[in-house]
Design goal:
The complex is a heterodimer. Chain A is an alpha/beta fold. Chain A has 2 domains: 175 residues, Rossmann fold; 134 residues, Coagulation Factor XIII, Chain A, domain 1, CATH 2.70.50.60. In chain A, 26% of the residues lie in helices and 33% in strands. Chain A contains 11 helices and 19 strands. In chain A, a hairpin with a 5-residue loop joins strand 18 and strand 19. In chain A, helix 4 packs across helix 5 and helix 4 packs across helix 6. Chain B has one domain. Chain B is built from 10 helices and 1 strand. In chain B, helix 2 packs antiparallel against helix 3. Chain B starts with 11 loop residues before the first strand and ends with a helix. The N terminus of chain B is likely disordered. Classes of the chains: A alpha/beta, B mainly alpha. Chains A and B meet through helix 2, strand 4, helix 4 and helix 5 of A and strand 1, helix 1, helix 4, helix 6 and helix 10 of B. Strand 4 of chain A pairs antiparallel with strand 1 of chain B.
C-alpha cells in the first residue's frame, strides 16, 4: 500500500478563520505495549508535567509505538468529516483526543463551541436511579445547567419515547430504551460539533431511522459531525470529506466518495495481509508428468476470458466474461459434471456461489481427448474484492466420484462506481412512463 | 430547535502537549473556573451517590454508625478488661472513643476520598470530558455528609452519658475542616502513585493501620517513650486532639501545631490539586 501523506495547510491563518470550529494540527499519539512500562512512563510524564519540563514526547521510548502520527484536520461550521479505517487504525484514539479525554503527544487541537460525543450512550447512567434522575445527571455531565436541562427535558422524553417509564429505575429498561435515552440526552445538549463513533449500530430499525433523521436535521442546522465508522454507507450519506487512516497514519484525505473507493479497494486486496492473486490463468503442467494408470481425467488450466475469448487478468463487475476449465480425458466418462464454489476472501471467506453444471444442463458424457468447460457469465455479479474458486470434476452422476480438483484459484474483481453499498451486481434497466 | 440559545458564548478549548504549569496564572484561572463550572455537576453526583447508596439498603444511614460504634464497644471492653492500659480520660470512655473514632474515620474518609472518586468514576472519565474537579468535590460532600451522620450519634452518646460540653464547641467545625483538608490533600497527592503502581496501593493498608495506632484515637496523648514521640510527630494528632478538646474541655494544648498543620494542609491541598489535575490525562489513558 502506498502512503501518500497529504499535508494540509498549517498556516496560522486557519486559526483566525472564523468558520473553522475544529482544528487538529500535526497531532500524534503514542501508546506503550508493555503494561508495566506504561505505568512507569506515566509516572515520569506526570513528574515532568509537574516540573514544567518538556517530556520529549516526540520520540519513542522502549516498547512504545505511534498510535497516531501527524494527523491534520480542519472542520468548518456545518461540514462533516468521516474517519475510516480497519480496526486498530487509530480512529477512536483520534476521536478521544478531539474530545479532550486523551492528551496529544505532539501537535495541538483547537475546538470552538460545544462538543458532544455520541461514542457511548448513557455514560454515567446509574442502574438504581430512575430515568428522570439519570437524564439530569447525564446532561449535567455533558455540561448543561439545570435550567437548560429543564428546558430540554420534554424533548428528551419525546425523542426517547419513554414517557411512562421515566420514573422507573434504569435497571428495568431494555438495552434499546437505554440507548434511546442516552442518544436523546446527547442530541439535546445542542452541540456545535458531534463526535459519533460507530454508535448507530444500536436499537431497532425504526429507532435508527429516527436517529438518522434527527442527525440530518442537526446537519441542516449547521452542526458539524466527525463520524467514525468502518461502514462506508454511513460516511457516504453524511460526510463531505473523509480521512482514511491505516496504522495511525493518514493514507488519504479528500472527497468522501474518492476516499471510500480507495479504502474499499485496499480492503478488498489487502485486508491487512497480502494475498497473491493468480493473474487470470492457472496451469498445472506438473500434473501431466505425474500421470499414472488410474488417472481418468486431468485439469490442465483454469482461466478468465472476456466475452470475445481473450485472456483477462481480472473480472469487472457488470461485464460479461467466461471462466474456462481446460481438461484432458483418457477414458470415456459418463455422467460428468463441473462443480465450483466461489468464496470471497475479502469478506471472511463467505461463500458467494455454489454451482454445478449438472444442475443447469444435466450430466454430460465425455470422450477421451482435450476439451474445455466454459462457464459464461453474461454479467459478472460479484462486487469489488478478491475471490477464490474451488472446483472439481466429477462423474458417476449423483454418486459423485471426484476425478480431479483445484483447491484454490484466486482472482480479483474490479468494482465500478456507485456499488459500495451493494452486495451484488443486479443487471437492470430503467424505464420511466408518465400516465 | 432552540439551538441558537447556545451559539452566543462559544468556549474555545485548546489541547496541546505543553505542560499547563508553564503558564501558572492561566492554569490557576482554569482551575478556579472548573471548580465553579463543576459545582452543579458535583452536587448532582453527590445526590446520586447518596441516593444510590441508601436506596439499596434497609439499614441505610445506620451503616455510617457501625464502624465507630464497634470500635468504641471494642475499646471499652478492652479497657475494662485491662487488656489495654489507657490513661485517664476527661470524659466517660465510650463517649471518648466514639468521638475519637468519628474524627479518625472522617480523616480516613477524606484520605480515601480521591482514590474512591477516581475508581468509581473510571468509566465516566474514560468516556467523557468534564471538569474532573466535580468528582473530588462530590466525594468531599460525601465525607461531610458521613461526618454529619456520625455526629448525630456522637451527640446521642454524649446525651446518654451526660457528658458536659465546652462553649468552645462552636469553633470545632474548623478542626473538622482541617482534618478533611489534610486527608484530601494527602489523598490527592497519592493519586498518581497508587493508581500507577499497585504495590503502593497495597502497602497503604498497612500504613493506615500503623497510622491508626500512632494517632490518639482511643487513648490520650502519652507523655513518655517512643510512642509519645511518634504520636506527637503525627500530623493528625494536633488536629484530632484540638477537635476533641474544643468539644469537651475547651482547653487547647496544641494551638501552634494546630495552626501550622492547618496551613500546611491548605498548601498541600493546592499542590495535591495540581498533581491531580495534571496527572488525570495520563491516568485516564492508562486505565481505559
Amino acid at each position: 500500500m502506498t502512503i501518500n501523506l497529504i499535508q494540509e495547510n498549517t498556516q496560522e491563518s486557519i486559526w483566525e478563520d472564523n468558520k473553522t470550529i475544529l482544528s487538529v494540527q500535526n497531532v500524534s499519539k503514542k501508546f506503550c505495549r508493555s503494561l508495566k512500562r506504561a505505568y512507569i512512563y506515566g509516572l515520569k510524564d506526570i513528574t515532568s508535567q509537574l516540573l514544567g519540563k518538556s517530556r520529549k514526547s516526540n520520540c519513542l521510548r522502549k516498547d512504545e509505538f505511534w498510535a497516531l502520527s501527524d494527523i491534520n484536520l480542519q472542520l468548518k461550521r456545518g461540514e462533516s468529516v468521516g474517519l475510516i479505517g480497519v480496526n486498530g487504525s487509530g480512529k477512536t484514539t483520534l476521536m478521544r483526543i478531539i474530545a479532550g479525554i486523551l492528551k496529544p503527544d505532539n501537535g495541538s487541537i483547537k475546538v470552538k463551541g460545544r462538543l458532544a460525543s455520541l461514542s457511548v450512550l448513557g455514560a454515567g447512567f446509574n442502574p438504581i436511579l430512575s430515568g428522570r434522575e439519570n437524564v439530569y445527571i447525564n446532561m449535567a455531565i455533558l455540561g448543561l445547567s439545570k435550567q437548560e436541562i429543564d428546558k430540554n427535558f420534554q424533548n428528551v422524553l419525546d425523542f426517547a419515547e419513554i414517557w411512562d417509564a421515566i420514573d422507573a429505575p434504569v435497571r428495568t429498561y431494555s438495552s434499546g430504551m437505554k440507548a434511546r435515552l442516552g442518544f436523546a440526552c446527547a442530541i439535546y445538549t445542542n452541540p456545535d460539533i458531534m463526535l459519533i463513533d460507530e454508535v448507530l449500530a444500536v436499537g431497532d430499525f425504526s429507532f435508527r431511522q429516527k436517529c438518522y433523521r434527527k442527525l440530518s436535521e442537526l446537519r441542516q442546522n449547521g452542526v458539524s459531525f466527525v463520524l467514525v465508522s468502518h461502514a462506508a454507507s454511513a460516511i457516504l450519506s453524511t460526510c463531505n470529506s473523509a480521512i482514511y487512516l491505516h496504522k495511525g497514519k493518514v493514507v488519504m484525505t479528500g472527497k468522501a466518495k474518492l476516499v471510500i473507493k480507495r479504502y474499499e479497494e485496499d480492503l478488498a486486496v489487502n485486508k491487512g495481509k497480502k494475498i497473491t492473486v493468480n493473474p487470470g490463468q492457472m496451469a498445472f503442467p506438473e500434473k501431466l508428468k505425474n500421470k499414472n494408470l488410474d488417472t481418468k481425467l486431468q485439469i490442465i488450466t483454469i482461466s478468465l476470458r472476456d466475452s470475445k475469448g481473450n485472456l483477462i487478468e481480472r473480472l469487472t463487475t457488470g461485464k460479461g466474461a467466461y471462466i474456462c476449465v481446460e481438461c484432458e480425458c483418457y477414458t470415456p466418462l459418463k455422467d460428468a459434471s463441473l462443480n465450483l464454489i466461489i468464496r470471497s476472501i475479502s469478506e471472511q471467506n463467505n461463500c458467494c456461489l455454489w454451482l454445478k453444471s449438472c444442475n443447469d444442463m444435466g450430466f454430460i458424457d465425455i470422450n477421451p481427448g482435450c476439451f474445455v468447460f466454459k462457464m459464461k457469465l453474461p454479467y459478472c455479479g460479484l462486487i469489488t474484492g478478491v475471490y477464490s474458486i474451488k472446483l472439481n470434476l466429477s462423474h458417476n452422476g449423483t454418486y459423485y466420484t471426484i476425478l480431479d480438483a483445484v483447491e484454490s484459484f484466486k482472482f480479483q474483481v474490479d468494482g465500478i462506481d456507485n456499488m459500495s453499498q451493494c452486495s451484488y451486481y443486479q443487471p437492470r434497466s430503467w424505464e420511466f412512463e408518465s400516465r | 430547535m432552540p439551538n441558537k440559545l447556545f451559539k452566543k458564548n462559544k468556549p474555545e478549548i485548546i489541547y496541546t502537549v505543553e505542560s499547563e504549569i508553564r503558564h501558572p496564572w492561566r492554569l490557576l484561572g482554569e482551575m478556579l473556573g472548573d471548580v465553579i463550572a463543576s459545582r452543579e455537576l458535583a452536587w448532582r453526583l453527590l445526590v446520586r451517590n447518596i441516593k444510590a447508596q441508601y436506596r439499596q439498603s434497609f439499614l441505610g444511614i445506620f451503616w455510617a454508625l457501625i464502624p465507630p460504634a464497634l470500635t468504641a464497644i471494642g475499646c471499652t471492653f478492652a479497657s475494662n478488661a485491662g487488656i489495654i492500659n489507657i490513661g485517664n480520660t476527661d470524659i466517660p470512655y465510650p463517649a471518648y472513643v466514639m468521638l475519637g473514632t468519628t474524627l479518625w474515620q472522617t480523616f480516613l474518609d477524606a484520605f480515601n476520598g480521591p482514590g474512591i472518586a477516581f475508581k468509581s468514576s473510571r468509566s465516566l472519565l474514560t468516556q467523557i470530558k468534564f471538569p474532573h474537579e466535580a468528582i473530588i468535590i462530590s466525594q468531599l460532600g460525601q465525607t461531610f455528609f458521613n461526618l454529619l451522620v456520625k455526629l448525630i450519634f456522637v451527640v446521642l452518646i454524649f446525651l446518654v452519658f451526660q457528658v458536659p460540653v465546652s462553649w468552645m464547641i462552636i469553633f470545632s467545625p474548623f478542626t473538622f475542616l482541617s482534618l478533611i483538608l489534610l486527608g484530601t490533600a494527602i489523598g490527592l497527592l497519592l493519586i498518581p502513585i497508587t493508581n500507577l503502581i499497585k504495590d503502593v496501593a497495597n502497602s497503604l493498608q498497612v500504613v493506615i493501620l500503623v497510622w491508626f495506632f500512632i494517632t490518639p484515637v482511643a487513648f490520650p496523648v502519652p507523655n513518655e517513650g517512643i510512642m509519645s514521640i511518634m504520636v506527637k510527630l503525627n500530623p493528625v494528632t494536633p488536629l484530632l486532639v484540638t477537635a476533641r478538646e474544643l468539644v469537651t474541655t475547651g482547653e487547647i494544648s496544641y494551638s501552634v501545631a494546630f495552626v501550622l498543620v492547618s496551613l500546611l494542609s491548605l498548601l498541600m491541598l493546592l499542590i495535591g490539586w495540581l498533581v491531580f489535575r495534571l496527572s488525570m490525562p495520563f491516568l485516564i489513558e492508562r486505565v481505559s
